[in-house]
Amino acid sequence: MPTNDTGPTNDPGSLIRELQEALGASNVLHEPEDLVVYEYDATIERSLPDVVVFPATAEDVAAAVRLAVKYDLPVVPRGSGTGLSGGAVPIKGGILIVMTRMNRILEIDADNRVAVVQPGVINLHLQNALAEYGLLYAPDPSSQRVCTIGGNIANNSGGPHTLAHGSTVNHILGLEVVLPDGRIVRLGGRVPDAPGVDLRGLFVGSEGTLGIVTEATLRLVRQAPATRTLLAIFDSVAAASEAVSTVIRRGVIPVAMEMLDQEIIRIVEPRIHAGYPLDAGAVLLIEVEGVPDGVAADSAVVEQACRDTGAREVRSADEAEERERLWEGRKAAIGAIGGAAPAFYLLDGVVPRTKLPEVMTQVLELCREYGFACGNVFHAGDGNLHPNIMFDPTIPGATERVLELGGAIMRACVDAGGSVTGEHGIGLEKRSYMEWVFSEADLDAQRSVREAFGPADRFNPCKVLPGGHGCASGHASEVMQHLGAGSYV
Ligand SMILES: Cc1cc2nc3c(=O)[nH]c(=O)nc-3n(C[C@H](O)[C@H](O)[C@H](O)COP(=O)(O)OP(=O)(O)OC[C@H]3O[C@@H](n4cnc5c(N)ncnc54)[C@H](O)[C@@H]3O)c2cc1C
Fold it and tell me: Candidates 3.90.550.10, 3.30.70.100, 3.30.70.2190, 1.10.3720.10; correct CATH number of 226-335?
């Protein structure tokens, strides 16, 4: 078993034996060729775990956590590894607990609009199971074909349809959680207003630093009787950005308002054939739902707002097949960039939506200044930006400059009254930016909460908060030192 600076202090062979006894030999990986598969998520940083385990029950998770305490090792929870901030990267080694075997939907209570699931359930599998009841679990990250409900909870994930329904935290009623000392506890409950301190709310978005989710009770919503998808076509990102706040100012909150700029349209359209015009400066994909008369009235308001802010055309789709085709382009966009550039860095920032025109102009200027192509596809209604900076990591210095550009874009978001993440979490990637958003007293309060659950270096060490024993700062230059030139994002 490989060890690192912070690896096991006792005989590593005993740890493996004890894990195998507790979880079954086939659920413990420790050979180097197996461990390399788990050294990264969807970001730049990578680091090997000492051992990887696949629990089947909360008791298995608790047993692995107790062994981590005994051998003084860090614990890192992992779902599907689609995270975009390095949250599942075991930066100090230790036991990586992969939750994908716990993938059962335990209950769908259609009458009370509640589902109980294990954390390894894939988001889209749950949506498919709910469809036959006419129900929906609202948070729908664009990675929903792969990502897990546990990862969604840890990152408080959003998605195109969280504009009207709210992000993950608004849809979690209760959690079963294994704490850093191995105790199994329940937070929240099955009814909306559980008594006592709201530890459920505290836990959602804690990025695997407070414990491991082993079961979740979810709030469901009814599928709307009518849905219309509109494609508004603009000559510029600035005009499309203006349309976003105009629609909401006129009193309509669509369920989704997604923007794709020209760079992205030119990458996506030839591959996906979603019907986006290649000469558009930007398109807005807007979805309105409700009862049929309400949908018609709201769509009219949306269409007029788009035309008043410069839309040259607004197309409308009512049939499921037509709507799916329009959405396919949005959902496949990030994957399509992978086929169009040697590497790309996907950023996540958020600004008040009225600041979108100004900040988007700044983002495009910064990319030009640094000399990189940049495609934007994002949850515009939430003011949640996702610039994708394309580059060739084999060019000396390119990765370092891309990371610097990322920092400059995040700074622009903060200066506009926004923040350094809209939905992807802080993880390793953004911890050095936390000081831009919070005072030292704010950060101390967050550290105290973390330490109330367990020692800060036990669960997901070096994540979210800056500092920490033996943790790098996370600044671009240090990341490059750790990774070496030629690394890619
Ligand atoms: C193409 C693409 C599109 C994306 N689109 C979106 C989007 O629209 N919206 C969005 O919000 N995100 C998006 N993401 C980011 C990512 O998919 C989400 O953050 C997702 O919730 C991560 O789930 P996962 O199962 O892959 O978790 P991982 O990446 O495995 O882990 C993420 C974090 O959760 C923790 N964790 C995982 N399971 C548990 C558990 N059971 N208990 C406690 N902690 C746990 C990990 O320690 C880590 O900190 C996208 C990513 C990609 C690659």
Answer: 3.30.70.2190
